[in-house]
Write a structure and sequence with these properties.
The protein is mainly α. The chain has 4 helices and no strands. Helix 3 crosses helix 4. This is Transposase.
Length: 80
Amino acid sequence: MSHKKQKAGTLSIAIDNFIKTTHNYWSGLFHCYEIEDFPRTNNDLEHAFGMLRHHQRRCTGRKVAPSSLVIRGSVKLACA
């Protein structure tokens, strides 16, 4: 983006802001590629939690997942 910002015209200010912000957060921005089996997108992460809720409902026979799942969901997901 920094190479082509001259062609952006009035959007060059937004490109500068994007580059500055990206540079500030660069060290932790793409950590999903450093951890094996870590969801790459938010959709993948939501799918994992959805599957956990589905299995919780199925095992307990409830129509909704228990409230403890919200509080300790990440731990239960890791254990599952």
